[in-house]
Write a structure and sequence with these properties.
The chain is α+β, with helices and mostly antiparallel strands. The chain is about 40% helix and about 15% strand. It contains 19 helices and 15 strands. The strands form 3 sheets. Strands 5, 6, 7, 8, 9, 10, 11, 12, 13, 14 and 15 form an 11-stranded mixed beta sheet that branches. It has a two-stranded antiparallel sheet with strand order 1-2. Strands 3-4 form a two-stranded antiparallel ribbon. Strand 5, helix 5 and strand 6 (about 140) form a beta-alpha-beta unit. Helix 13 packs across helix 15 (about 410-425), helix 13 crosses helix 17 (about 440-460) and helix 15 (about 410-425) packs antiparallel against helix 17. The N and C termini lie far apart (about 70 Å).
Length: about 550
């Protein structure tokens, strides 16, 4: 892009006379380096952050002779999307042409039907119930009874929310066309847009944290979330002041009809709860298998992201409808997209759990490697890990054998992963912010050593020596994603798979599931016999009956 101070943009040749140029999306301009014509970024399908990375911009007229535009540096996670030409007829009717392609791709994909657990009420949803589940599938609570939560009435309006939060409160708005944030909006602006009959563009609000607002004071999230949330359990109550602790417990999401959020994983692969106050949401969810996570990382970095649906690259992707009054719980690491068929208001939040800490740590490392900006990552994650290590080490020094036996394998693995992760951070390198978060290095080193020794010893008693020898390096790496299916022993390194279910051939799919289960049972039985033979051989060596056999 080349321009001089006197060479200011005057008119975009792609804009018709009735183009809504007053919208924030039209504030970004690009100049063709060949013909020196000026264009709106939105008119050529390029976001504001992507414009900053363009080295040479070539318009469509000049592209044939001079080639495509060139970029500086590697592709970004989202701004590398290659957007289609905007159809202004559809735009003025409230449906951008590019967004219509999202719907076309979703409609053309055959998603698996919702076969997750639906509970009539929340009475059974306790911390112990979640600890003892033999799966990490999402689940839906159809009625709020028993969840012991307080939510806004279903008749609440966005203007009422704006009054409760504060009309002057800044809010981050997502443009569905580009899947990027628009700055400069207030709750008053958003309320006027939401209530307008003529919405020129499809916009979305998904990151308004309201914990310390008057509205947030009237909301209480599900009791079970407070019971298992690591921030609630380990962050010192005296240090929860201002913005210096993780404020991710209560969000208000306000989406207009046809809003869409593309496939993503929540920061640090947190658990998520969504309570639909009014309207409806449709979730498209892929399990967090290692294969799916590798595919997701490649897809999110690829220019093909703009013209492809992530669900097409995985074997299982489920479609789940969540309606007013229902509450959806999404476990750690699930890759999901969200579509809004009607105007909706949702209260949701994020939380971390000890038994899925290996997934949280793995996601944190992935975000660090891909240089995800700090504002899109779990706040104060390192400091929370430090507080956890301090309290857990003190606790484990006092636990007797009976108390240790109450810990599940997944919880033990979470504590071990925490210690291994902090051990790596102690060795460095660390920037000044990380050093402040980690605090007294000498004391932290002592706590970490205690956890590695005591928790590692307990884990060693829960599995054979061979299993522990293979498992320990994986836990120290702390990057383990998995999909646990019913009947699989928690902590196993095995990954269960389910065949794709074709709606037209339900009986055939059911037979395939039985055959898959039978193969898995045979594999477990073979492992059990191998372990039994190894124990017998060890006993024989001790008795001197098998001397010299190695």
């Amino acid at each position: 892009m080349s321009s001089s101070e006197s060479d200011e943009p005057q008119e975009c040749p792609l804009c018709p006379e009735d183009a809504p140029v007053e919208l924030p999306a039209y504030e970004t301009w690009l100049q063709c380096d060949v013909c020196e014509e000026w264009y709106h970024g939105v008119c050529v399908g390029i976001s504001a952050s992507e414009c900053e990375r363009i080295d040479k911009f070539h318009c469509k007229k000049c592209m044939g002779k001079h080639g495509p535009s060139s970029y500086k540096g590697p592709a970004l996670r989202r701004s590398s999307r290659q957007h289609s030409q905007v159809d202004y007829t559809m735009l003025n009717e409230g449906q951008p042409a590019t967004f219509n392609q999202y719907l076309l791709r979703i409609d053309s994909h055959e998603f698996l039907e919702d076969e997750f657990e639906h509970l009539d009420s929340g009475h059974a949803v306790t911390a112990e119930w979640i600890r003892s589940r033999d799966t990490n599938d999402p689940f839906v609570v159809d009625a709020p009874d028993g969840l012991d939560m307080e939510m806004p009435d279903g008749s609440i309006t966005v203007p009422q929310i704006a009054d409760a939060v504060g009309r002057d409160t800044a809010v981050s708005v997502m443009d569905v066309l580009t899947q990027e944030e628009l700055s400069g909006w207030t709750m008053d602006d958003w309320a006027q847009y939401f209530e307008a009959k003529d919405r020129r563009r499809v916009l979305n609000v998904i990151s308004l944290e309201i914990t310390n607002t008057p509205l947030g004071q009237t909301i209480r999230r599900p009791r079970v979330v407070d019971e298992v949330d690591l921030v609630e359990r380990y962050w010192p109550a005296a240090k929860r002041k201002g913005d210096q602790y993780p404020r991710v417990k209560t969000y208000c999401l306000m989406s207009v009809q046809n809003a869409y959020t593309d496939f993503h994983v929540d920061f640090s692969a947190t658990w998520v709860y969504y309570h639909v106050v009014r309207g409806e949401k449709v979730f498209y969810m892929a399990p967090p298998t290692p294969s799916n996570m590798r595919k997701f990382e490649s897809w999110s970095k690829s220019p093909e992201q703009a013209v492809s649906l992530f669900a097409d690259s995985v074997r299982q992707c489920f479609e789940v409808h969540v309606r007013a009054g229902q509450t959806l719980f999404i476990p750690a690491g699930w890759i999901h997209a969200v579509f809004t068929p009607v105007d909706s208001v949702v209260i949701g939040g994020n939380f971390l759990m000890l038994q899925t800490l290996n997934t949280h740590v793995g996601s944190y490392k992935l975000e660090a490697r891909t240089r995800v900006p700090a504002r899109y990552r779990f706040p104060f994650f390192l400091k929370l890990c430090r507080y956890m290590a301090e309290l857990l080490a003190r606790k484990w020094r006092k636990l007797d054998h009976k108390a240790k036996a109450k810990w599940t394998v997944s919880e033990l693995e979470g504590a071990f992963v925490l210690a291994g992760f902090l051990e790596d951070r102690i060795r460095g390198p660390n920037d000044p912010d990380d050093l402040r978060a980690l605090g007294d290095m000498q004391a932290l080193t002592t706590h970490v050593g205690t956890l590695l020794e005591l928790v590692g010893a307990e884990l060693g008693t829960r599995m054979s020596p061979e299993e522990w020898a293979n498992r320990e390096p994986l836990l120290r790496e702390g990057c383990h994603f998995r999909w646990i299916r019913p009947g699989m022993r928690q902590g196993s390194a095995l990954l269960a798979t389910r065949p794709r279910r074709n709606r037209a051939y339900g009986h055939a799919a059911a037979g395939a599931r039985k055959r898959s289960g039978a193969r898995l049972n045979k594999l477990r039985e073979r492992e059990r016999r191998d372990r039994q033979r190894q124990r017998q051989r060890q006993q024989q060596r001790q008795r001197g009956q098998l001397c010299g056999v190695g």
